[in-house]
Design goal:
Layout lengths: L13 H13 L7 H14 L3 E5 L2 H11 L7 E5 L8 H5 L3 E5 L10 H14 L5 E5 L8 H10 L4 E4 L7 E2 L2 E2 L6 E5 L12 E5 L2 H11 L22 H12 L1 H18 L6 E3 L6 E2 L5 E5 L1 H4 L3 H10 L5 E2 L15 E2 L2 H9 E4 L7 H14 L3
Parallel strand pairs: 2-3, 2-4, 3-14, 4-5, 5-8
Antiparallel strand pairs: 1-9, 6-7, 6-11, 8-9, 10-12, 12-15, 13-15
Helix pairs in contact: 1-8, 2-8, 3-7, 5-6, 9-13
The chain binds pyridoxal-5'-phosphate.
């Protein structure tokens, strides 16, 4: 046992345990089975998208989405720069090149005006991107009215990376339901988890069937093993799908708790000079996966790293906001439109412990410690 406070640990309940044991006892110990089928149906119903494929990770879901759209060597794919590398790595898996768009100061998500500019510039050059990947960062939806309109004008499909945003909404609709395909992650740190896992959702049945086919080694319908396409081993285990079904039952509670934690941090850290919160856009309800703050060292009297290291000494995990992709050595040389907003958010941004099992007393303690650093 450890007293460490983690950023976003798993939060399990009795249903998850019962369903896992049921799956175990049924001997469906495979990347297929009744829980996989049911988890797909239940996620699809929850988010209001007709079809879903349960996969081994969110990264696998993004990879298959790109493959299904036919992204390949020589293509460009536009993505938000302020994100986790898993959003963009699959672009490189497919031999394509990422093009990065800066974040909007008001949402920390892809700036729709810069996206429009980039698409117009691409059209002028006669080389449109093969796809756009929009990310719903830290559980807040990107501005889909504007992003979808811009992409529709140039007939570029949108993949929605809602890995962090299950349970969030945009104008009353669920995160993950906006793009041609949507992606969720059930990694151990997410709002609900299967330890590792992901889901690809789409209104197109043929695409989801294709995803299932590619994810099971692309076996042609034949009694022997026959392959006419390159396949992957990307399906979700039946055991993990059972855990996911239990987690899905409490998703609304988990969202409510993370939102309450976010509200507490906002209240307890209100009025501190130089300390601001990630803006919440008026167009939707974030799931508040992680509560993020920014610290202006001059006004606050200490920097982001001072705060992080102070919390670390108290055995409290906090993390800098994602380092933008255009600043990553691996993506050096990739084109970026803007970049200063994302760079600033990275320089000053910190994610605070936000797990749904975090007690109020801990939220108050962490907020108190951060507050005390102001001009300490
Ligand atoms: C924005 C984003 N995209 C993609 C992923 C990849 O998901 P996974 O870890 O399930 O592969 C993650 C999280 O890990 C993420 O935060």
């Amino acid at each position: 046992m450890t007293n460490r406070t983690y950023l976003s640990p798993p939060h399990m309940g009795p249903d998850e345990r019962a369903l896992l044991l049921e799956a175990f006892d049924s001997n469906w110990i495979a990347p297929l089975g009744p829980h996989v089928d049911a988890f797909e149906r239940e996620i699809a119903a929850k988010v209001g998208v007709p079809h879903a494929a349960a996969l081994s990770s969110g990264t696998a879901a993004l990879h298959l989405a790109l493959r299904i759209l036919g992204v390949g060597r020589g293509d460009e794919v536009i993505a938000s720069t302020l994100t986790f590398s898993a959003t963009v790595n699959p672009i490189v898996y497919e031999g394509a090149t990422p093009v990065f768009i800066d974040a909007d100061r008001e949402t920390w998500n892809m700036d729709p005006a810069l996206l429009e500019e980039e698409l117009a510039a691409c059209a002028k050059k006669g080389k449109l991107p093969r796809a756009v990947i929009a990310v719903d960062l830290y559980g807040q939806c990107a501005d889909y009215d504007r992003i979808l309109a811009a992409c529709a004008r140039y007939e570029v499909p949108v993949i929605e990376d809602a890995a962090e945003a299950l349970g969030a909404t945009y104008r009353g609709r669920h995160a993950g339901s906006f793009g041609a395909m949507g992606v969720y992650s059930f990694n151990g740190n997410k709002i609900i988890t299967t330890s590792g896992g992901g889901m690809l959702v789409s209104g197109r049945k043929d695409w989801i069937e294709k995803a299932r086919f590619l994810a099971t080694q692309a076996r042609d319908p034949a009694p022997h093993y026959q392959h006419s396409q390159l396949g992957f081993n990307y399906r979700l285990s039946n055991l993990l799908a059972a855990v996911g079904r239990g987690q899905l039952r409490v998703l609304d509670e988990r969202v409510a708790r993370r939102r309450a934690i976010n509200a507490s941090y906002r209240r307890l850290l209100g009025g501190v000079p130089g300390l601001a919160h990630m803006p919440e856009a008026p167009y939707g309800g974030a799931n508040c996966w992680l509560t993020c703050i920014t610290i202006d060292p001059r006004a606050f009297g200490a920097g982001r790293e001072d705060v992080r290291q102070h919390l670390e000494r108290l055995d409290v995990e906090s993390r800098p906001v994602w380092k933008p992709m255009h600043l990553q050595p691996f993506f050096e040389g990739c084109r970026v439109r803007g970049g200063a907003v994302a760079a600033g958010v990275f320089e000053h941004g910190l994610c605070l412990p936000s797990g749904s099992s975090l007690p109020d007393s801990q939220v108050a303690r962490i907020a108190g410690e951060v507050r005390a650093l102001h001009r300490s």
